[in-house]
Amino acid sequence: MTEQLHNLHYQVLKDTNNMATSLSELKDTEQTAPTTPHPVFIEVEQRCLISAEQLKRYSNPDELPTDTRTAPDLDVGFGQQRALKALQTALDIKASGYHVFAAGENGLGKRTIISRLLTRIAADAQTPNDWVYIHNFTDPRTPLALRLPAGHADLLQQQVNHLWQQAKKRLSQRFRSDQYQSKIEAIKNNTHQKESQAYEVLNAEGKQYDLALTFRSFDNKAVFVHPSQIQTDNEDNENTDQPVNNANKKVDVEDSKETSVNGAEDNDTEYGNSEYETELNNFVQKNHMQKRLSQLTIALEQLEDEANDAIEALHRNIAQRALQPLFAPVYEQFTAHPLVVDYLKAVFADMVTHVERIVNGDDEEFVTAVLATTPSRYAVNVIVSHAPDSGAPVIFEDLPTHLNLLGHVEQITQLGTVTTDVSMIRAGALHRANGGYLLLEASHLLEHPYAWQGLKRALQSRKIKLSSLEQMLTLTGSLSLSPAPIDLDIKVILLGEADLYYELLELEPEFDAVFKVRADFHDDVVRTSEHELALVAKMADIIDYANLYPFDRHAQATLLEHLSLQAEEQDRLSLHSDLLIKLLHESNRHARLDNENIVTATHVTQAISDMDERSGYLRDLYWDELKNGQQLIQTQGHAVGQVNALTVVSYADSEFGMPARLTAVIQPNIGAGEILDIERDVDLGGSLHAKGMLIMTSYLRALFSQHHALNFSASLAFEQSYAHIDGDSATVSEGCALLSALANVPIDQSFAITGSMNQLGEVQAVGGINAKIAGFFDACREQELTGQQGVVIPMANVKQLMLRDDIIEAVKAGSFHIYGVHTLSEALTLMTGLPIDTMNKKGRYRKDTLFGKVLSRLMLWDENQNEEEDIDDKKSKKKDKKKRKARRQKKEDHRRKDTAKHQKNESEVVDTMNGRKEVIDDEKSIDNDENAKPLDSI
């Protein structure tokens, strides 16, 4: 019964507390939505309201030219004085490593500005030398590089080509002439005569030994044989073996016949005795003559060599006499260049040496190559040539591969054989820009293998050395040319973004040693009347180059205002050339469609609308979801812990603003002020977003921890957001949602808010402010403008406002409002209509302020917690008392049971004893009876 009464009392107390809490929260809610605005709210609203004149800065058309045809002359370096000064510093220093990295966003026109500046500088600079590669007659594998004055490379090539054609023609004539043929015949006849005389002398010597000189038929070799063998052979095969001298042949044979017959008759009886001696003598004699014949053969070979030498000497003599008149004028033409003269003399000597091969035309080295006018042996390969007094070259290489930068040696495959020669050496961008300036896109350079390494090596060594990329990649030792290096004198300008520059500094240790100068290009410029005229001059230059219609002064003003919007600053103008060129072309299109010969502001506005529509596909999808109710955005009414935050969605080249619902939920009496960032915990929040959350958490703890312990935990989340979120521009909106939930004070949903915040509660500027305001305005217009809607932005962003004209008209009409705040307290006052942090004389927040309500709830949660703990303590004490009573009762029951059991045991013992006594008495009576029987029997 006591326990039931205690539970009933606890339930009544709990219901009473809940009712008190509900009444208190209801009372607070009623207080936060007063029927008449609080004076503090009125004062803050008037102070923070931004007028329509502050929402956009217009350009005065009267201060602009009538049209772009009367625009002033263009200043090439407009807005980029810092970068041009750095560039000029690098150009003035001739030391190694003073090359330039031009850092800036894509689309600023870096290449155009630098190219125009360098073209002006290069026009007055000294024209660099020409370079040619020529055949090295000493070592054909290493072609030589010749330096020539500007314009002389082509001249040398033409002269050498002319020399070859004239030389071949003249040599062919000389070697077909009758005089040449007669000299050759004379040399041959003289040699033949000497050979015949030598053979006759040897033949005469052989007759002494009865031997005749003849030539074998199958190999035409001279041998000594017996005359009888000649006769026998003639009988078997007439005219097969002929003696040396046909005139003397018959006589010699007949004489030998007579001698042999007589000898046979006279010495018939002695033949058997002298046969052996005769054969032996014949062998010795024949062997002797064969040795004499071998000696003669050697002498005849020397005679033939002498004849050949005489013929070669004749050829050289003829070639020298034929070529000398051709080369002499060319020598005189290049007298001032000793290396060229030495090369021409080497060509002359080579032609004289190989005159037979030239005339015969059966050697590939002396045959004109395909697509050439001279053989590769005499080709003058012009690597780079400049017109005299043309200034220094300015080269932009759009495909900076290793081959395109440093040059390469081509190869040709014929019948499975790979060949190359000096005429197949190809120049690279460094060759063409040598002595001048080379512009490269840094990102393109890093895309190609070995391109950066090759460029760095060339700039450090100040030489262009051709290397085989195939050998570097395949690690093979294939035969190729190794041309002599060329001296390099150049300034290289790399174009890229600042992030790429920092990455190169970090990852490439030698980058800073090669590119010592950094030229920073600015994105925008201060908006002054002078700079507006300079930008109009830039527009006029683009219009003249693209042959567009002229733009009137109102079109110019509209373009300038749009450039300020792109710069996100009223007092600055964007310098992005790509955007300006696009606007000019599309505005010109609308003028052409309207059959106008001048572009007006209407045409520019249409072009801007077209560009905005093309990039608004995702934005239209969002607005469709908003209309269909799939996106939950509330632009009217009040809600606790719910805020319309302003965000910017960036996708590819499109960017638009949109509101996003941000909610906060409180869990009282759990935790110690922890705030759960759902976006961060699921890895949808970036580091900047996490930083903003921590700053806001620190600010709230500093506000209330000194007054009361933070006996709650909270959670924050962007509803219906499934993409990555980063940035700290939602810090103020997160603070508003959290404080609203803590104080249980509703926030006016007619407002949207954006802004960053520091730990002191000061509101800081954010980016994309114009897109954010436009996004919430469009959302309010979709759900009907009530005249109460507006946005709360940092006051620091007011100078960045360049809003659309329809938004400005709505602000003028009072159907939309824009407020600028300095602190979180001002933002909360506008959002809740309450004073925020007003204190009483005791230094505590007043109860009617937002912070006072937060502290009241913190203390209420603490009291409720304490009461619940007291009730829990009473219940626990009652339970302990019951447990103790139960334990005592249990002990008493055990004691009683033990007593009863003891008494029972005692009675059993008495009964046992009584029973035992009776048994003893019975036994005694029996004994007495037994003892009596004998007596009876006796």
UniProtKB/TrEMBL annotation:
Q: Which reaction does it catalyse?
A: Hydrolysis of proteins in presence of ATP
Enzyme class at the top of the EC tree: hydrolase
Per UniProt, residues of the Lon proteolytic domain are 656-834
Bias (Basic residues) ranges: 876-889
Which residues are annotated as active site? Answer: 729, 772
Instruction: Specify residue ranges for compositional bias: Basic and acidic residues.
Output: 249-258, 890-907, 914-938
Q: Which InterPro entries match?
A: AAA_32, Lon-like_helical, Lon_proteolytic, Lon_Prtase, LonB_AAA-LID, P-loop_NTPase, Ribosomal_Su5_D2-typ_SF, Ribsml_uS5_D2-typ_fold_subgr
- This entry's Enzyme Commission designation comes to 3.4.21.53
Region annotation (Disordered) ranges? 228-272, 865-938
Which keywords fit this entry according to its UniProt record? Coiled coil, Hydrolase, Protease, Serine protease
- Coiled coil regions, renumbered to chain: 286-320
Entry-linked Pfam families: AAA_32, Lon_C, LonB_AAA-LID, LonC_helical
Would you identify the family this protein belongs to, as annotated? Belongs to the peptidase S16 family.
Q: What is the protein name given in its UniProt record? A: endopeptidase La
- Please give the organism: Psychrobacter alimentarius
Q: What is the lineage of its organism?
A: Bacteria, Pseudomonadati, Pseudomonadota, Gammaproteobacteria, Moraxellales
